[in-house]
C-alpha cells in the first residue's frame, strides 16, 4: 500500500527542486519548496537537451505541458576544419535524436505545475537536521519546520548533502567549458550552417577540445537561439579567475574552427555567456532516511553526458514511483537510493571517459571518417547507455 499524507520539504527551487515537488505532490504528499532567491529563475541557464522519450513521459505524466517549446532534431553531425584549409569537413553522421530546450522555459514549465502556495522564494535554508522522533528539520531565518522527508535539491554546495555525505566535494577535471547563446539571426548570413542545424546538432572537433552547437527556443514566442558549449584543455586566460572570457572564446573559434562557424561564434552578439570549470562527484548513497538528494546535490557529471537536467527529471520520476510503491517514507527512500545511486555513479564514470576521449586526449579529428568516429564513440561508451550516441549503440 502506498504511503500517503507525508510532509516533504524541498531545499532548492531550481529544475531539480521543482520536479521533486511535483513528484511528491503527485504521490499525495504535502510539499513545501524553500528557494533562496527572491526572484524568478527563468532567465538563468543556457541550452540543454533531453531524450525525446523522457520529454514525452514528462508531458504524459503532467510534469510538463505539451506547449513547452523544444527544437527536436534526430541527427548528430561531426565536423572538423579541413587540413590546410579553413572550410569544414564532415566526419560522420549518427542517428541521435534529442529534444533541445531552453533552461529558463523548462524551469518555468515545471514551476507552473507546483502550485503557488508550495513555493517560497527568498527562504535560504541555514541547515537541516533530525528530530528526536526520526523526522527531519529545515531551519531558516523564520525558524524550524518539521517534515517526514527532506529533499536536498540545492546543487553542488548542498547543505543537505553535508549531513548525509560530509566531505564529498567536486573533483576538478582540469579543463573548462564555455557556454553561450546567440540569436539565431546571427546565422542569416550562413544559410548552409542554419540549414544543417534545422535537422541536426553539431559536434565540432579541434586539437585539445570540441564544441557542441544546437538550436533552442528563445524566451520570446517564436524566437530561437544558437546554443553552444566549447570544451578546451588549454589553461584559462591569466587573470580570468573564473570570469567569462569572450576574447578567449573568439581566439579558440578563430584559431581552430572552420571559417563559417568561427564567424558566428566570434562575431555573434551573445545573449548569454559563461565560463565553468568542469568537475564531477557522486555520493555513496543518494538517500538516507529521512533525507534524499536530487539533481546536482547527489552527483555532478561532466557535461559531455548532457545529463544534468535529465538526471534531475529522472530523479523526480523515480521518487514518485518509489512513494507509490512503498508503505513507509523510509522504504520509499531506500528504493530511491538503490536506483539513483547506481545511476549517478554510472554517469560520472561515463563523463570521465568522454572527457578523456573528446578533450584530454583528442584524436586527429580531420583524419577521421564514419568508422573512426564510431570506434571512438564505442570505446568511450565502453558498453554504457547514452541517448547522445543512439545509432552507435543499436548496431
TrEMBL record:
GO terms for molecular function: monooxygenase activity. InterPro entries: DHP_3-monooxygenase (IPR053212), FAD-bd (IPR002938), FAD/NAD-bd_sf (IPR036188). Keywords: Monooxygenase, Oxidoreductase. Signal peptide: none annotated. Residues 148-348 form the FAD-binding domain. The keyword Oxidoreductase applies. This is FAD-dependent monooxygenase. It comes from Streptomyces pulveraceus.
Amino acid at each position: 500500500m502506498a504511503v500517503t499524507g507525508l510532509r516533504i520539504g524541498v531545499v532548492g527551487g531550481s529544475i531539480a527542486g521543482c520536479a521533486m515537488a511535483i513528484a511528491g505532490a503527485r504521490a499525495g504528499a504535502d510539499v513545501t519548496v524553500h528557494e533562496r532567491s527572491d526572484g524568478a529563475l527563468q532567465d538563468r541557464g543556457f541550452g540543454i537537451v533531453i531524450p525525446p522519450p523522457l520529454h514525452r513521459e514528462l508531458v504524459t505524466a503532467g510534469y510538463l505541458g505539451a506547449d513547452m517549446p523544444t527544437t527536436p532534431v534526430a541527427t548528430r553531425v561531426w565536423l572538423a576544419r579541413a587540413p590546410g584549409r579553413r572550410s569544414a569537413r564532415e566526419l560522420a553522421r549518427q542517428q541521435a535524436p534529442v529534444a533541445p530546450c531552453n533552461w529558463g522555459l523548462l524551469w518555468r514549465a515545471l514551476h507552473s505545475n507546483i502550485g503557488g502556495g508550495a513555493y517560497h522564494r527568498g527562504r535560504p535554508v541555514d541547515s537541516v537536521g533530525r528530530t528526536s522522533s526520526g523526522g527531519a528539520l529545515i531551519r531558516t531565518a523564520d525558524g524550524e519546520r518539521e517534515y517526514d522527508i527532506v529533499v536536498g535539491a540545492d546543487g553542488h554546495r548542498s547543505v543537505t548533502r553535508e549531513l548525509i555525505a560530509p566531505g564529498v566535494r567536486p573533483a576538478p577535471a582540469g579543463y573548462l567549458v564555455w557556454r553561450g547563446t546567440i540569436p539565431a539571426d546571427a546565422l542569416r548570413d550562413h544559410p548552409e550552417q542554419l540549414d544543417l542545424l534545422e535537422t541536426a546538432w553539431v559536434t565540432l572537433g579541434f586539437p585539445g577540445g570540441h564544441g557542441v552547437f544546437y538550436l533552442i527556443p528563445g524566451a520570446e514566442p517564436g524566437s530561437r537561439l544558437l546554443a553552444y558549449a566549447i570544451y578546451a584543455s588549454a589553461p584559462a586566460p591569466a587573470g580570468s579567475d573564473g570570469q567569462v572570457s569572450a576574447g578567449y572564446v573568439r581566439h579558440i573559434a578563430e584559431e581552430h574552427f572552420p571559417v563559417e562557424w568561427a564567424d558566428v561564434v566570434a562575431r555573434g552578439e551573445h545573449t548569454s555567456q559563461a565560463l565553468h570549470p568542469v568537475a564531477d562527484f557522486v555520493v555513496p548513497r543518494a538517500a538516507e532516511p529521512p533525507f534524499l538528494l536530487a539533481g546536482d546535490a547527489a552527483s555532478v557529471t561532466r557535461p559531455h553526458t548532457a545529463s544534468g537536467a535529465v538526471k534531475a527529471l529522472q530523479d523526480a520520476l523515480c521518487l514518485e514511483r518509489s512513494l507509490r510503491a512503498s508503505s513507509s517514507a523510509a522504504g520509499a527512500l531506500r528504493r530511491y537510493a538503490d536506483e539513483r545511486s547506481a545511476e549517478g555513479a554510472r554517469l560520472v564514470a561515463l563523463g570521465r571517459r568522454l572527457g578523456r576521449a573528446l578533450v584530454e586526449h583528442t584524436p586527429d579529428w580531420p583524419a577521421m571518417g564514419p568508422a573512426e568516429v564510431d570506434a571512438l564513440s564505442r570505446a568511450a561508451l565502453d558498453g554504457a547507455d547514452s541517448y547522445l550516441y543512439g545509432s552507435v549503440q543499436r548496431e
